[in-house]
């Protein structure tokens, strides 16, 4: 994952707080997975545990958070006062568990950071328990943004290069489905969810200053400064301004064959 995550680790949770919609998606995912106390859940790219810890509170299963960035994991461990989660530094391409040991592998806002998606999906398949008739079965669950989200992102007007950078990072659902099949996964299901929220200009400025999405750290420096300046000027002129953020999520599940 991007080295920029080390820099924002201390403020990541404040910049990207867990929403009620995030929690509802977690609950729905865990209901479908029907995990027991002996099952293992692996969140790949867990970061500061923003989703991992709520997930652990909602399931009796054992939970492991895997991330490449040590500073993100340090923040996660500090929050996990009950020691509910096993935090491991590792890669999506080499998960630190044996074959066929996980009931659920979760990748939330991770696939756009992967240079070799099919390889990562193949590794997820390796660690998932073999599929079989009856019951929900082990699965990989991916949350990512759609190409439409990229094109309509609320900050595009201030930072035109955002969409240019993110188009190849957020492929169409059909491309992801093909990669999952090439990785040996099947029973692929896709759901598209839309979320609309109003954001106060002060919150927008704080998030942009903190580069709360990785793409902001990839912008040309001058474009970033000019876009931030425009937003800061809006804040100085009228603190009651709000911006509409429309998000479109693709929620993809796939299972290993029997």
Task: Write up this protein.
There is one protein chain. By secondary structure, the chain is α/β, with parallel strands linked by helices. The chain has a domain at 4-146 and 169-196 and 248-255: Vaccinia Virus protein VP39 (Rossmann fold, 3-Layer(aba) Sandwich). Helix content is 38%, strand content 22%. The protein has 11 helices and 7 strands. The protein has helices spanning 4-8, 12-15, 20-33, 52-58, 70-79, 117-127, 147-151, 161-166, 173-182, 201-209, 221-237, and strands spanning 40-44, 62-67, 85-89, 104-108, 139-145, 186-200, 242-255. It has a 7-stranded mixed sheet with strand order 3-2-1-4-5-7-6. Strand 2, helix 5 and strand 3 (85-89) form a beta-alpha-beta unit. Helix 10 runs antiparallel to helix 11. The chain is globular, with a radius of gyration of 19 Å.
């Amino acid at each position: 994952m991007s080295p920029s995550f080390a820099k924002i680790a201390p403020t990541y949770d404040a910049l990207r707080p867990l929403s009620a919609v995030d929690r509802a998606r977690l609950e729905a995912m865990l209901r479908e997975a029907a995990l027991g106390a002996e099952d293992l859940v692996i969140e790949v790219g867990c970061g500061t545990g923003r989703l991992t810890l709520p997930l652990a509170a909602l399931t009796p299963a054992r939970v492991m958070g895997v991330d490449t960035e040590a500073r993100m994991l340090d923040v996660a461990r500090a929050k996990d006062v009950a020691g509910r989660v096993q935090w491991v530094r590792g890669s999506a391409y080499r998960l630190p568990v044996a074959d066929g040991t996980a009931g659920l592998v979760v990748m939330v806002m991770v696939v756009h950071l992967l240079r070799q998606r099919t390889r990562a999906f193949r590794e997820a398949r390796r660690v998932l328990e073999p599929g079989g008739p009856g019951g929900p079965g082990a699965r990989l669950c991916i949350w990512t943004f759609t190409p439409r989200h990229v094109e309509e992102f609320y900050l595009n007007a201030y930072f035109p290069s955002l969409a240019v950078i993110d188009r190849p990072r957020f492929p169409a659902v059909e491309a992801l489905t093909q990669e999952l099949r090439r990785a040996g996964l099947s029973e692929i299901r896709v759901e598209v969810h839309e979320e609309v929220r109003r954001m106060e200009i002060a919150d927008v400025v704080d998030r942009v200053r903190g580069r709360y999405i990785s793409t902001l750290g990839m912008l040309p420096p001058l474009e970033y400064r000019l876009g931030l300046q425009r937003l800061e000027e809006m804040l100085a002129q009228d603190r009651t301004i709000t911006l509409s953020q429309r998000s479109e999520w693709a929620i993809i599940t796939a299972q290993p064959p029997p």
